[in-house]
Structures are given as C-alpha cells and as structure tokens.
Amino acid sequence: MAIAIFDFDGTIISRDSLPDFLIQACGRKAFLLRLPWIILLKGAALTGILSTHRAKELVISSFLRGMKAEDFHQACLKYASRIPAFVYPAALKEIRRHQEEGNKIAIISASVPDWIRPWAQTIGIRLVEGTGLEIRGQILTGRFSTPNCKGSEKVRRLRQLYPDFASETLHVYGDSSGDKELLALADVPHYKPFNNK
C-alpha cells in the first residue's frame, strides 16, 4: 500500500486554475479591470510587503466578496466541467495506475477545493485539500477560512489526512516552490512529471 499526493495547478492540469476560474465566474472584462491591482499585490508579495496569504486573499476578495454561496457553487460546478480539457493525459494515467494498485490518493492544492472537488469525484478521488473560502450567512466574505495551502501548510494537511504516512511509501507530485516541503518528505518525489508527456 502506498500514498499518492498530487498538486493540482501545473501538475494535474496545464494551467493555474485561479485566474481561469475568476475569468469564467466574473467575466474577462472584470478580470482585465482588476489586472493592475493583481500585479500590484503580486509585487507586494514578492518583495515581502505583504504575505502571499494576504495578497492572494485580497485578489480573491476583489472578485468574490459578496457573492451568494449558491452562485459560487454553481460557478464551481461549471468550471469543474471544463477541467478535463486541461488535464495532462500522463497525469490521469498515473492516477489510474495508483487506483488500480489500491493506493490512497489525495489532491493537496493551493487553489480553492470547491472547483477541484467536483471534477476529482468524477475520476474517483474523494480527498481534496486546498485554500478554503469563508462563507457567512450564505455569502462569501472575501476572506479565507483556512491558511493558504502551500509550503508547510501542505505538509500539515498531509498529516491530517494520513497521520501514519511515514509507515507507507509516499509518492508526491508537484511542480512549484509551494510543493518543495511535501516533495522533501516523499519516498518517491515527482517534480514536474507530466509537463513534457
């Protein structure tokens, strides 16, 4: 028995799902109008003026704050239906291999799990961890309900899902600096395994 942990953006799919989702949910015009703000926040995060958590929260808040939970849910379902077009065929093949071998599989992503989970369930992946969005009174507040799921937070989620992971063979699939802590723990690390296949 083994455990296989997959990053999502850039690992299973060929793109960053966050801007893609925001464009679909709010429109290309709304995205372009906010692009200078996004670039400013990204620069602030890169220079350490803002934490990546706060910068990302402010970006998402500028699009989704005040959205009804049901509208968000429907937008997530709509986006998830598009995901198969972005999936690396080699990634899907590797997921199927782990399933055939009876291994435990989870996706741990920095993205919001609400738009990953509906797709993941269609291919038999039940466990999806990511950066949660806060909902109060059936309205999105624009704040996160969890820490930004990258770096050491990904390791914390792994320990939550599989407290005894050290007793099993751990495969980790990732493509960015946000995955390096998880990759360092892996018995079998896979860095950018599907991009050229």
TrEMBL record:
<dbReference type="GO" id="GO:0006564">
    <property type="term" value="P:L-serine biosynthetic process"/>
</dbReference>
<dbReference type="InterPro" id="IPR036412">
    <property type="entry name" value="HAD-like_sf"/>
</dbReference>
<dbReference type="InterPro" id="IPR006385">
    <property type="entry name" value="HAD_hydro_SerB1"/>
</dbReference>
<dbReference type="InterPro" id="IPR023214">
    <property type="entry name" value="HAD_sf"/>
</dbReference>
<dbReference type="GO" id="GO:0036424">
    <property type="term" value="F:L-phosphoserine phosphatase activity"/>
</dbReference>
<dbReference type="GO" id="GO:0000287">
    <property type="term" value="F:magnesium ion binding"/>
</dbReference>
<dbReference type="Pfam" id="PF12710">
    <property type="entry name" value="HAD"/>
</dbReference>
<keyword id="KW-0378">Hydrolase</keyword>
<protein>
    <submittedName>
        <fullName>HAD-IB family hydrolase</fullName>
    </submittedName>
</protein>
<dbReference type="GO" id="GO:0005737">
    <property type="term" value="C:cytoplasm"/>
</dbReference>
<dbReference type="InterPro" id="IPR050582">
    <property type="entry name" value="HAD-like_SerB"/>
</dbReference>
